[in-house]
Task: structure prediction
Amino acid sequence: MSIFIRKQAYTGPVKGVVLDWAGTAVDFGSIGPAAVFVDVFAKSGVEVSVADVRQFMGVAKKDHIRNICGLPSVVAQWQKQHDRKPDEADVERIYAETEPMMVDTITRHADLIPVLLETVDSLRRQGVKIGSSTGSSL
Result:
């Protein structure tokens, strides 16, 4: 198997787009994933704000949890609740709890973002291939 590495920028027409679900195709503002992180930390007796959660949006879910666990306010609350700082076992447990919560929240936050259908229709008329992906459940 050989690997192809492009050495110059592609300047041709758009051939395809991949739409992320939360925040791009559905759930304007990515409310669902943010709410899950707030809720999953509350289960451990730790309050995090939507602003705390949003600063790490876009990273892998486990890294997102690790980053939240590293916030000084979270460390202080964790120390008070559990007599220790959050560790990797806590990250793994929270991640395991997060995954089914993400799946569950999808149905409550699945409204299409305004103009999505018109955009997809326009892309199709231009012959652009369309794909979708999500990190919501991973």
About this structure: Residues 16-133 form a domain with the DNA polymerase; domain 1 fold (CATH 1.10.150.240). The chain has a mean pLDDT of 90.
